[in-house]
Every structure is written in structure tokens, then in C-alpha cells.
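ENCODED BACKBONE
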Amino acid sequence: MYWLRIILIALILPWAHIPTFCQAFPCDGSLLFSTNSGGPPTKIYKVYFGPFGLVTFGQIKYYSDGNFNGLGFNPKDNYIYAVRTNSNEIVRIKADNSFEVIGNVPNLDELTTTAGDCTPDGYYLCHDQVLDQILVFEVVENFALVNQIDLFWDPISNISGPFTARIDDFAIDPNNTTVAYSFQGNYSDSDLEPEETKGFLLKINLDFQSPNVGMVTPIARIPRDVIRKIGSLMFSANGGLFAYGSTSQNPNQAQNRLLNIDKSSGVAAQYTATGPGAINSDGCSCPYSLSFTNYANPNFALCSDSKLNYTLVVTNRTFQDIPNASLVDTLAEGMIISNISGNFNGNFAAGTGIGTRILQLDNIEINARSEATIQIETEIIDLPIDIISNQAFLTNLPEKFENDLVSDDPATVFVGDATRIFSDPQRLKEFTIEVTHPTDCLKPGDGRIVLSAPVLIPGIEYEVNMRNEEYTEFARNVIIDDQHTFVLDSLFPGEYTFYKITPRTSRCSFAMKDTTVTLEAPNELIQADIFTNSPICEGATLELSATVFPPEGTVQWSGPNGFLSTDLNITLDTAVFEQSGLYEMVFSYGVCEQVRKLEIEVAPDIEAKISSKDNYCERDTVRLIAEGAGNLHSFIWTNPDGIQFSNQVLEIPFAGIEHEGLYEVIIDNGYCKDTTSKFISMLPTPTLTLPSLVKSEFCNPGVLTPELSGDTNVSYAWTPGVGLSCTDCPKPEIALPVNPRYQLNVSNEFACQDSADVFVFLDQEGLIYIPNVFSPNNDGVNDYFQVFPDCGVACIDEFQIFDRFGGLVYSLSSLEQFSNPGIFWDGYINNLEASVGVYLWQLEITLIDGTTRSLKGNVTIIR
């Protein structure tokens, strides 16, 4: 049975006085953690959360002689309590970088502690790894060991018995202070058994009134690549669980990773930024804070005739009542409070509240662990176009809270910042504009713009803000007439963009969607035309001319490659292709202007040529290609016979001597023409004839005999060379072994050539003579059954003779010499004369070309 051992409260060290708050830490929900390397000094860092998930770490305290572990922030006095390493001392850590020993643990020479925290009612708890207990100390006004809690596994975890694993920190849940969370390390250490719960987030029952106090429940395993060791656990003010530790399997590696952990599921996420590294770390926080927020909805409003709400929320997460607070909120000038609601109590100060821009509430009561909400509804009368800030103040707080509290905008990541809204101008949506354009080129300042809008108040002076086409901003003051209209006169040609109209007696203004009005010069009063002789060929004269009215105006020509001229008429001698392009003529007379444009084309010199060989062999395909610069449109070929063709490529397949001569082509690019010619020579070419098929029994050498016509002064090349007596002669002999196909290529002195193929076959007629009768009577005539192969037989593979019952009476194999009759059947079977009669035979032979044949027949013995 697991039990809570109650120790008689023993007063160890009485205090001379209650510590002053000047040495205390602010209880504001900040995440704090300490680092050291197993000895002094100990540093304390604060975690700062910025925009876009940015996290930074700032050192706030330094204890040169301190070597602490098991840190816990005590919300009763706002000090941090810890165990001094390698001792049995409990210390109070102060904000002025000092600490004091407040007591020694009785009956222990040394505490083996790495985990600790404080309860909201001021007790300091630490876990001793030797006792496997959580020790509970009174530390605020006296020092005493008041409880020792044995830890044991939750039976539903399938692990039974005492909990003896090492834990490096634990943190009490501010939303359920009867529960603390811890972590069982996931690295090699005998103190981290059992193996099955390594890397688990753990929940510890700290309900002192429960029979299950000290019960440890595994929640979920956190993956090793996320964390292996957690030295620091701490809760934020809103109840979020954070950890600081290491992913290394070596427990002595520096801890430098911050995590956010879902306490219900164990799902953990690392922050990208790494923090200060140290072998030891320990965390704490004071999530029992007092917060004051001011939220604007919406965070923008029109500068007049609109509404906006501020919601003030005071959240008392502490365990102390606030009995008599005061709240003051002064709205920006031009805003009026129209209604106040919410769940709060208190008294409105005289002269504040609805109908004013000031709210003061006195005697506000906010109980411990509760919240007060005040919603202020406002009407906006007249605000400047700007960012409007609002910040409320909470005063007359109990001494514990030390200072007055200013409201914080929860919509930002910054702490203690004023709530900001954007005051937008009114939108001028319904209006009409009438334009009178200037009427004189030389005296153009008679343009007018008339703007009418129902919201403009007659008799009121307004400032009209505009910008011109160069984005230069300027303003004019106007008086609105009875038709809700104002006039801007004496305007020159150009663009005028209206963007704001502001009453001179108000801070609010009208914004317009950028509305651009163009006053055009009377360009129709002048005239201009331009002319050219383009398109022209490169090298010709390019002419540009203009007629204008009135003649007193000025002309400005511009064109490709930086061309500029102020002449009315322009002549460009020997024009080049690079002068092609867009030309523009601007005729100006005062502010009036006429623009004329011309697309000029100077066609490039074609530089015609014929791409082709100079010489062709007879029977070749003559291929002539006409080429030139620019976009080529047409081609006219003339051959030696005067016949014309119109394709860019002229092809003559199987050309002969009759195609020799001069070829001419005329190329046209649409504007220019060019002519070129080329002489084509036809070279004499041999003509070769070979029989397509040659048969031979190869008893005597065969000869390959080609026939030539035309140019016969040629060289010979036979392929392949196997089986030929020569490869460069006109008539090679065929010898064994032979190739079934030969090719002959003949070439003359001009490299003109011809080729032909011949196929060589073995003549298989009469390959072998086989008699059908023999007389084995030893008279020296026809005594053996001998076969007589011709020259085409290379080998008798197998020769077998059978009697009429199918019995084998004779056989031979692999015979390459056939002249000796004694190797053939002598008519005896097992040394006995064979009976006269008919015998069957079968023969397998291989021919000299590598093929095989099978033969069958019969032979008759006579005696």
C-alpha cells in the first residue's frame, strides 16, 4: 500500500522579518530556466516570444556562487526556491542576484534533487532520487518539512509497484493544481527504468486529500528525435506546458532546445531557435499572474459617424482576492462612450462613463481565480486620419502586485503595449466631375474641373489634395456652393489625381478612390502628316518628310539606334538594314501636340549564293540550294537547257552528262533582287554487272567474273575476303570455305563508283552415289556396300544398315575419308555371312557449306 507519510511540523528556522518585494521576481507568467555545468555559477534566462513564431532567450540573473537545482517559483512571496546541489540546504533565490539558505532538511546529509516546483499556496516541493519521494516544505514564513509523498505507478499503466525512475523536473498545472507533469528521460541510465516508459510524459497526482496522492500515470511517449532529456518544465500564464532539454543520447550533452507540449496527448513541437547550452537546466514560472487586456473590435473605424468597441478583461490567476481596485480608461479626443456592459462590479466616478470619453471605475472586486470583463461601446465623432492608441490603467492593487497595471493589446506579441486602431477617412463615393479643357495652344491656363458631391456642406471651406502626373502633391482651398459643388479653375493641361478632401474645421477627411482627371490640350487646332519612300533596298536613299500647320511649330523626329532630327524633311543616303524600325515625328505648337508614326523597312542586301558541290558523278542526285540574307520570297532557276524552276532547292535525281552546265538563280526578298550562277560538272562513272547467282560443286575452283561498261579504268574491292583468292583483282577464284554473299565495289580516279552483289550456292545435285546391290563373295568385285561422296560432301556423320526386322547390322560415324572400301559393310553379321535379301540404310552427311542432309534407302545382297 502506498501512503502519504505526515511528518510532524518541526520549526527549523524562524524569520526575523518578511522579505521586501524589492528583491522578488515579477509574477507575470514568464518562462524562466536556469543553467549551470554542475557547479557555480548559475544563470537564469527568460524566454521571449516575438512575431511570426520568433523565440529569443535573454539572461536576466547571474549567481556567481550559486549551484541550484529543483527550481520553483513561489506565488506567495514571488521568490524562487531551490535545492543547493551537493547539500541538504533549501535556498531562497532573490531578484538582486543573491540567495539565502533558509533551512536544512532533517535526517538527510544530502538531497539528490533535480526536480522541484511550488504550490499556489506557497509550499515548496522537490523530488529526492534516493528516497523516491516528493518532499513538501513550508518556506514562506517558517521552514519545515511537512510532507513526504511516496510515488507509485498507476495500476492502469500495466506497471506495478513503487515509482523509482529518475525525473529531472516537474511542473504543477496552474489550471489543476492537484496535478504535476514530468518526463522520464530516454537515454542510457540505470536510474531511468522501466524501459517501457522511457521518453514518456508523466502525470503526478498531488491531491493531498486523495488516497491516490503520489500516483504516476504515463501519458504518451515523445519521439527521440524531438527530445530525449528534459531538464526544465514550466507552465505559461494561459496553461501551456513548455520544456527545455536535449535530443542527444548522451545525457551530458548541452540542453538547448525549447518545446511546446500538449499535456493531454504528449504531442510536442520544437522551436527552430536554439537557446543557451548547458549540461544542467531547471525551469520554473509563475502562471498565477494578474493580466489586463484591452481588445478593440474592429481594429479600424471611419474617422466620423462610426462605432467601435473596446473589451477590457482583468484575469486574476492568483489565489489572492483583489478587493478595491480602480480602473481608468481615457478614450481619444473625438470618441464618446455610448454604452458600458460586462461582468464586473464597482462604482462609476462622477463625470465619467456614458456621454463622456473617460471611464473610471472604483471599488472593483476581483476574486482569486476569476475574471472581470468591461465592454465599452463608443461612437466616433471626429478623429484624425492616424493610428489611434488607447491604454487603460488598473490601480490600487494589493501590495503583492507591487505596481499598477497597464492594459495590453492581446492582438500583438508585445507585452504591455497600447491598443491601436486605424482611423480611416470617410469614403467619398457619390460624386460627379465636369471638365472644361484648355482652348488655346499658346495660352492654355483656362482649364476647369467642377466636382459635385451631396456630402459636401455648402459654405464650408475644404482642402482638396491632389497629385499630378509626376506624383507631386499639392492642395487648394475651396468654398462649397449651394449646389454642393466646388470649382478648380486656371488649370493647365495634364493629369490631376484627387485622393483626399478635408473640411478645414474638422480632423476627419474624405478619401477618394484615386480619381484621375485629364485636361487635354486643344491638339485638334494643329495638323501634321508624314511620308516615306519605304520599303527600300539596303544601299538606296531613305526619305522621310512631313507637312505641318501652323508652320511656326517645332518638329522632333526619333527612330532606331538613337536617331534624332529637328528637320521637317530628312534624306538618309545609302540606307542600311539597321535603320529599319519605328520612326516617330512629334509636332509641337505651345502645349498642343500631334504625334505621327511610321514603320520603316530597309531590306537587307540579299548576297545571293548557290550552296552545292561543284562536281557530281553520273547517277548521283544533283542538289542546288539558293541562299541569301533576309526574308526570301521567290526563286527563279534556269538550267543549261534554259528551263526554269521556282523552288528554293533544285534537285535532279539520277543525273547524267546531259545535266552538266551553268545554273543561274534570281532571288527576290520582296523589295530587292540578286542573281548568281554556278557551273556543275558531271564526272564519268563506271557501270558494274555481276551475275546474281553462282552454283558450284567445288570439285574444281570457281571464278567470279564481273562485267564493266563506261569508264573501265577502275580499282576493285571484294568483300568479304573469306573464300576468295584475291580482294583487289577483277576475277577472283572461289575456294573453300566460302561465304554465301560477296560484294564488289569499283571506283575510278574521280571517286565515282558502282557496286554489285553475287550469291554463291553449293550445287547439291549428284552430291553422292549409293549403289542398290552388292555381292560379298570375295571375288574382288563389288564385295563391299560402299558409298561414293562428291566434292561437296565434307563428312559422313553417321551410316547405319538394318535388317528387315529393324535390327542394326552395321554402322560407322565421323568419316571424312571415303576412298578405302574396306571401311564399309562387307556383308557379314557377327562374322557370319548375311542372308541374301533386302537391307535398309540411313545416312547423315555434312556438306562443305556447313549444312547437313539425311538420306534413306535399301540395298540387296546377292551371292
